[in-house]
Write a structure and sequence with these properties.
This protein has helices spanning 38-46, 93-96, 137-140, 143-155, 171-182, 195-203, 217-224, 239-248, 270-275, 289-298, 316-326; strands spanning 2-8, 11-16, 26-35, 61-68, 80-83, 86-87, 107-108, 120-124, 128-130, 164-167, 188-191, 208-210, 229-234, 249-257, 278-281, 307-311, 332-336. By secondary structure, the chain is of the alpha/beta class. The chain has 2 domains: 2-142 and 303-336, Alpha-Beta Complex (Quinone Oxidoreductase, Chain A, domain 1); 149-281, Rossmann fold. Strands 3, 4, 5, 8, 9, 16 and 17 form a 7-stranded mixed β-sheet that branches. It comes from Paenibacillus albilobatus. Residues 8-335 form the Enoyl reductase (ER) domain. One of its GO terms (cellular component) is cytoplasm. Its cofactor is Zn(2+).
């Protein structure tokens, strides 16, 4: 089969790979769509993660089951599925605490096992989630990043009617915006440099969208909320948004970090001491795919709104990764495996 392999910084090659073996308890999926994630971009621009054990990329993907292994009972040939990439061990302390997303011995499709930027993927039956007939397969590739956003909102201290700031309006930021809106947020501020992304944020329900180059976004947010938002989310991962997020939160509020970071940041901890605000992280998701599938299928979260391009696998470098590095109008780029 043809697949995209990553070997280092700016070194992705589309070439032949072996189709993974169909084992008992697994299903073979003919991949339909796979999304380029921010974590994929991190490896492309900054180097491979230590967890990578094989080169075939792709952990946001959907497709059609073409073959089932011995012992598979829930999934059948012809089912349209979204694939959850995380494979927790089920035995470590975090798994036993119910935090499988923080498993210390986890594996994952697209990292330790062959991923979705390939014609075929073989996945465990429990990692294949059947999509409703009415749900397009391209939205199946949005389930994974949407789960990241929904988990962040669920992990936060957001309450009905609370004010929220989202820093960064890329795919995760726009999905976060929709997730906080679905959770009942009141005022929703989006801070983003790109005009196209700010416009999209307003279309999707942001009450305010600000360009931090043109206005003092933190000052404006604090003025409009009587001292700061209840919860701020960082979906950009740079020094400027980290600082802004901390100062945009009211005393006792929460600054929730979802983004991955290529560089460390610096800040004065006294800011947090004096306000008793909280800085917390959110990683991946935990048993959320069924709920997220329903949110996307029902339109409560509009996955189509974040898709800006669909490209062929052969074009994944130039029209995918390279395009995302230089074109701020791009948001979520999907690889259409049928192109």
């Amino acid at each position: 089969m043809k697949a995209a392999h990553i070997y280092g910084v700016k070194d992705i090659q589309v070439k032949e790979a072996e189709v993974p073996a169909l084992l008992p308890g697994t299903v073979k999926v003919k991949v339909s769509y796979a999304g380029i994630c921010g974590s994929d971009m991190h490896e492309y621009l900054a180097g491979l993660y230590p967890i990578r054990k094989q080169p075939v990329l792709g952990h946001e993907f959907s497709g059609v089951v073409t073959e089932i292994g011995e012992g598979v009972t829930r999934v059948k040939v012809g089912d349209r599925v979204a694939v959850e990439p995380l494979i927790p061990c089920g035995r470590c302390a975090n798994c036993r605490r119910g935090m499988a997303n923080l498993c210390t011995n986890s594996q994952g499709y697209g990292y330790t096992l062959s991923g979705g930027f390939a014609e075929y993927a073989v996945v465990r039956e429990e990692n294949a989630f059947i999509l409703p007939d009415s749900m397009p397969l391209e939205l199946g590739a949005l389930v994974e990043p949407t789960a990241v956003a929904v988990h962040a909102v669920r992990q936060s201290q957001l309450n009905l009617g609370d004010s929220v700031a989202v820093f960064g309006a890329g795919p995760i930021g726009l999905l976060l915006l929709q997730a906080v809106k679905a959770a009942g947020a009141g005022q929703i501020f989006v801070v983003e440099v790109s005009e196209e992304r700010r416009e999209k944020a307003l279309e999707l329900g942001a009450t305010h969208a600000m360009n931090p180059v043109e206005v003092d976004a933190v000052k404006r947010i604090r003025e409009m909320t009587n001292g700061g938002v209840d919860v701020a989310f960082d979906a950009a991962g740079v020094q400027a948004t980290f600082e802004s997020g901390i100062y945009a939160v009211r005393p006792g509020g929460e600054f929730k970090i979802i983004s991955l970071w290529e560089k460390p940041v610096t800040f004065n901890p006294s800011v947090i001491v004096k306000t008793e605000a909280k800085i917390s992280g959110s990683y991946a998701y935990n048993n959320l795919f069924p709920e997220v599938i329903q949110l996307l299928a029902s339109g409560r979260i509009d996955g189509h709104a974040v898709i800006t391009s669909m490209i062929a696998l052969d074009d994944i470098v130039e029209q995918g990764f390279e395009q995302l590095t230089k074109d701020r109008k791009q948001c979520k780029i999907l690889v259409d495996m049928n192109k």
